[in-house]
Specification:
By secondary structure, the protein is an all-beta fold. It contains no helices and 6 strands.
Length: 106
């Protein structure tokens, strides 16, 4: 299980947290059926989906499954994004802080 927190960039906004398991899908967009609703005119009704997918079995160990079996596989999972929008999906990193970038080399 992976915990995922999403929130608005607005001041005083609280992040909402989801616990995702392999097979779960978190829908993001303007539509009322989305898990995380965007109040953005440029967003599609269902803009994107986030989901977990197993990537590789990395070993065998106790407690790795819900039954706690000693021979349960230990699996790494990855978080994936599926673009379900009609106008494309862009991901931008946050801006870098400007402190120390004023050209002063001393």
């Amino acid at each position: 299980m992976v915990s995922l927190a999403l929130g608005s960039a607005g001041e005083g906004q609280q992040a909402k947290t989801w616990a995702l398991q392999v097979g779960d899908t978190l829908r993001i967009g303007r539509g009322p059926k989305c898990d995380f609703i965007l109040d953005l005119a440029g967003a599609s009704t269902c803009h994107a989906e986030l989901f977990l997918r197993p990537e590789e079995v990395v070993g065998v160990g106790a407690g790795a499954d819900t039954d706690g079996g000693a021979d349960a596989p230990v699996v790494n999972v990855g978080l994936f994004v599926r673009d379900t929008s009609k106008n494309g999906l862009g991901v931008r990193p946050p801006p870098l802080p400007s402190a120390g970038l004023d050209g002063d080399s001393s």
